[in-house]
Amino acid sequence: MRLPSRRPFTFLTPLSPIPLSISNPSISIPRTQTRTAAEIRTGTRKMSTKFSHLPRATSSPLECPYEGPSLLHSAHFNKGSAFPSHERHAFKLQGLLPPRVQTLEEQVDRAYEQYCSRADDLAKNTFMASMKAQNEVLYYKLIQSHLKEMFGVIYTPTEAEAIRNYSRLFRKPEGCFLNIGDRDAIDGVFENLETRDEIDYIVVSDGEQILGIGDQGVGAILISSAKLAITTICGGIHPSRQLPVVLDCGTDNEELLNDDLYLGLKQPRVRGKEYDDFVEHFVRAARKRFPKAYIHFEDFGLQNAKRILEKYCTEIPCFNDDIQGTGCVTLAALLTGLHVSDVKLEDVRVVCFGSGSAGTGIADQISDAIATEAGKSKEDAMKQIWCIDKHGILLKSQGGKLTTSQAPFAREDNEWDCECDLLSVVKKVKPHALIGTSTTPSAFTEEIIKEMAKHVEQPIVFPLSNPTRLHEAQPQDINKWTEGRALIATGSPFPPVEYNGVTKEIAECNNSTAFPGIGLGAVLSRTRLLSKKMIVAASKALAAQAPARQDPTKPLLADVEDVRELSVNVAKAVIQAAVEEGLAQEEGIPDEENLEKWIRVQMWEPRYRSLKKVGGEA
Which residue ranges does the record assign to the Malic enzyme N-terminal domain (predicted)? Predict the structure, then answer.
């Protein structure tokens, strides 16, 4: 179903600072200021000239080294039919374009018609990839103009199909391909890259666990590219200052190994010391070549994701979205749920059903928040969370069967004199919140939800598994089983639910409302490390914007259509936390009064800048 053709992209501008205390009931959603018609039409926003000198500010002309056909072939500089007459003359484009000069808005209208003519979502995804390779500004402006409609096409779930078919759809390489057979050549590969600006943001994947479709080998370059596109759309990270990377370690996907068209290493996936040395070479070479870059690890396998994050998080500014991003956005929804249900974080009891990287990542973020806000030790905070996997509750006696991320949440065996299944745990723990990342459909049964509702006034229930068919329960059923009392968030979009004449909107725990703002804050502050307090601050900033804080029938999280404004608030909280902890290395970070302007002026927006010849005038 096609959504309305365009919703004007509105910036929700806070008129007063957002309190960071989650226990403050006076936290409110900021009122909005709308931009002028001209600003909306051109995709611009007037900024104070106070920070126009900053290297990421985009108010000055863009220096261009190309002319003629070479300029039209550069996605970064190309304006297509929007080149004004004076630039057509100055850059030798006369006769290379139709005579009429169009606006960016007119180009978006034409591109949208072309997009809509594609037969299915995969064809639309391929069309968008082709556009990105031709005209960077038009690509991002089109997405920004139809964000909610296109989000699932350029990202999950359609991007999974594009990744699965990467070698068959391949047209033009994008990003950096590193393979384990040429480990010692990584430094040279980075030198081969054409980078006009400093690199701020690197997304790297080894392709072992992609978007629920498993090992996709070299096709993982597309998830790195997609994540970076989201950081640009949602967080204003400059496209010219980012780098997608794939670490090709082979693949255990037999279908790929038997495919004559497969473009990656056709060998079993390398593991152990050789794998660790490869990752180490990548990190060291990346930090040497791009010393200010923030590294985002994406879709690594369960046995490696947490281990790699823990190894490097004390050395460099790095992040894993499957662990920290999922945890951050879920924590934000939980904080809102606790606010609405009037339960203190220091008293909350949480059951996490599903103990993979997402489930344990969520548990870790919640325990960090409890420790930070309640002044408890991390160990004591963990005791408020019960984690369950397919064999039942995690127990210390399971020893070597537990992953490094599961082990800290294992309970003492002598605590349990009953069955360790989900229903038994709910009966014993009487949780305020039940969170599902198990990919077990319908695991949250009517009996389980009703048992939970016996003991808490407003059960907080988050069935987060994706895709929709794998959800632990349907929101409508949860709402009915709790007689409309449940506070619900899901991992995919769901329509509103109704009980006894009261309609409630369902929040989506979308990582894209979290990781772009976190990255933006880390990049702009040039933080030495990404600390736990910075992630908790990001969660609180998200929670502060939740519509349910004003009306409990509204969602526990703000909508993705407002994500750019969310990213400003998240970045602001992250930067303030970095400064407070002494981790920020950027000079000249302004005070509270000017920080938001400082952030906004450095966020990239899809608009055409005047071009200036290198060494001359446009």
Answer: 132-313
Residue 26, pLDDT score: 32
Active-site residue identified among 155, 262, 294, 608: 155
Alpha-carbon span 159 to 166, nearest angstrom? 10
The phi and psi torsions of 597 (rounded to 5 degrees) equal -60, -40
Parts of the chain with a pLDDT under 50: 1-47, 618
Task: Identify the pLDDT of residue 609.
Answer: 96
- Pairing relationship of beta strands 385-389 and 392-393 according to DSSP bridges: antiparallel
Cα end-to-end distance, the chain, whole Å: 44
Per residue in 312-359, pLDDT (tens digit) is 999 999 999 999 999 999 999 999 999 999 999 999 999 999 998 889
Select from 442, 439, 448, 457 the least CA-distant residue to 421: 448
- Of 202, 187, 178, 489, which is closest to residue 320 (Cα–Cα)? 202
pLDDT at 433: 98
pTM: 0.88
Q: Which phi-psi region, left, alpha or beta, contains residue 35 (left: φ > 0; alpha: ψ -120 to 50)? A: beta
User: Which residues belong to the annotated binding site for (S)-malate?
Assistant: 466, 510
Residue 24: the pLDDT is 36
In the annotated binding site for a divalent metal cation, the residues are 298-299, 322
* 3-state class percentages of the chain: helix first, strand second, coil last, to nearest 5: 50, 10, 40
How much is the pLDDT for 561?
86
Sequence-separated (6 or more) residues with CB below 8 Å from residue 10: 32, 34, 35, 562
- Catalytic residue chosen out of the listed positions 124, 141, 227, 572: 227
Rounded to whole angstroms, the Cα distance separating 344 from 333 reads 14
The single-letter code of the amino acid at 250 is: G
- Give tens-digit pLDDT for 365-401: 999 999 988 889 999 999 999 999 988 899 998 888 8
Closest CA to 493 of 539, 544, 561, 541: 561
Please enumerate, by residue number, every residue annotated as part of a binding site: 298-299, 322, 466, 510
Domains of the chain: 44-48+54-149 (1.20.1370.30), 155-300 (3.40.50.10380), 324-509 (3.40.50.720)
What is the pLDDT, as a whole number, of residue 617? 52
Instruction: Say whether 499 is catalytic.
Output: no
Classify residue 321 by its DSSP letter. Answer: I
The answer to whether 155 is a known catalytic residue is yes
Check residue 31 and give left, alpha or beta (phi > 0: left; psi -120 to 50: alpha): beta
Q: Which helix (H) or strand (E) holds 389?
A: strand 385-389
